[in-house]
């Protein structure tokens, strides 16, 4: 879906899939790579946009869970630490998500494709 608006990107992906990509294709993809330090820029942008709204702002707390913990104590320890884990270590899934109606935000991970919450820009 993401490449439907960019014929060039779709062609690069097709060549890559078939193993027929070129050096120029790889260079173009490298131009689009996001460095870890850029995650902070995205977070700062999202926060500034959120703060610019005065009405219809929401803070949604994640419903976290632990699967496969060896003991109840370990599970509790992990759950206590979740709120303090940097986004770069959680695939950009926030412990608390701040959103406002009409806000543009950057989503780095497919959250709920049936609701349209996919990586890239989302408007609520």
Could you describe the 3D structure shown?
With 124 residues, this protein is of the alpha+beta class. It has two domains: 1-36, no CATH class; 37-123, no CATH class. The chain has helices at residues 7-18, 23-31, 36-52, 72-81; strands spanning 57-61, 96-100, 104-107, 120-123. The strands form two sheets. The protein has a two-stranded antiparallel sheet with strand order 1-2. Strands 3-4 form a two-stranded antiparallel ribbon. The longest helix has 17 residues, at 36-52. The chain is extended and about 50 Å long. The two termini are 19 Å apart. The mean pLDDT is 75.
Main sheet specs: 2 strands, antiparallel
Total beta-strand segments:
4
Helix % is: 25-40%
Structural class comes to alpha+beta
Low-confidence stretches: none
In terms of DSSP E residues, the strand content is 5-15%
Q: Radius of gyration over alpha carbons?
A: 18 Å
Shape: extended
Average of the residue pLDDT scores? 75
List the total number of helices. Answer: 4
Number of domains: 2
N→C terminal distance = 19 Å
- Along the chain, the helix and strand elements come as HHHEHEEE
Question: How are the strands of the largest sheet arranged?
Answer: 1-2
Task: Please outline the helices and strands.
Blueprint: H1 7-18, H2 23-31, H3 36-52, E1 57-61, H4 72-81, E2 96-100, E3 104-107, E4 120-123
Antiparallel strand pairs: 1-2, 3-4
